[in-house]
Amino acid sequence: xxxxxxxxxxxxxxxxxxxxxxxxxxxxxxxxxxxxxxxxxxxxxxxxxxxxxxxxxxxxxxxxxxxxxxxxxxxxxxxxxxxxxxxxxxxxxxxxxxxxxxxxxxxxxxxxxxxxxxxxxxxxxxxxxxxxxxxxxxxxxxxxxxxxxxxxxxxxxxxxxxxxxxxxxxxxxxxxxxxxxxxxxxxxxxxxxxxxxxxxxxxxxxxxxxxxxxxxxxxxxxxxxxxxxxxxxxxxxxxxxxxxxxxxxxxxxxxxxxxxxxxxxxxxxxxxxxxxxxxxxxxxxxxxxxxxxxxxxxxxxxxxxxxxxxxxxxxxxxxxxxxxxxxxxxxxxxxxxxxxxxxxxxx
Length: 347
What we know:
Elements lengths: L5 H9 L10 H68 L11 H6 L10 H14 L22 H12 L6 H16 L4 E4 L8 E3 L6 H11 L8 E4 L9 H14 L4 E4 L6 H7 L1 H8 L4 H13 L4 E4 L3 E4 L9 H5 L11
Parallel strand pairs: 1-5, 2-3, 3-4
Antiparallel strand pairs: 5-6
Helix pairs in contact: 5-8, 6-8, 6-11, 10-11
Pfam families: Metallophos, PPP5
EC number: 3.1.3.16
Family: Belongs to the PPP phosphatase family.
């Protein structure tokens, strides 16, 4: 190997020569070749790791940008609604109030023509009026009706049959819908502004966010997590109507589950459980489409039931679940003092 240059040595090493008859220098040469291979493996691993981190960083940046775009689109309409509210609120302050001290136009916007806030005598009168105008006994179920039938008190088998019927695209008769809403209203009236949830029995609780009329999302939740029960409590944190095409079916299932498990099914009010929001974002249109002959009656009752939904749920006296959050200056006692059923809309 006389005259073997360093370049020649490199070429031999590159072509995989790991053994040369060079006496005592051969062992040293093999060690150098082995070390060089290890270095190449390490450099390759570092290069792959670097590439992978860049790839994951690009994915994360893309995810964040996508989320920002989604949020800006998702809440753009509501931000516009808030600006309109501020504008019209200033304008309403200049209008002549009615005998309840509220601008007359606010009552005109309500299906029930109810004032925005009321005293106890007005509430008692309205209770009687609600039952008179939403009396399910005045409606008969047609002999050809093939949808689900429900009776009260609710049973677990009824809940399962109701869910299966809804999965089969069968619509609940308006008579049963009104009965369900009236029963739910009576139970909601017994609750305070803040639900008190506990995990002492179940050791867990599932909190669900906005469903917005997406029935498949609700079915997926129940498929993966099971139906509500004593051992499987849920909190649905508002906004289960509007935007999607199956808001009515979602409300039916949630309210039926609440009647069956009032201590394990907690339902908070969101900003879309509001009549003015329902006019703009589709729930009113859905009611008119699905129950055209009794739409006014159903909407009136929905508007009232939504006003009785609790505002928040407190889990084990430690975790507060409330739609949209609260300010750092708002206490639980402030929330508890709100006359939630007297506030029909603030938009």
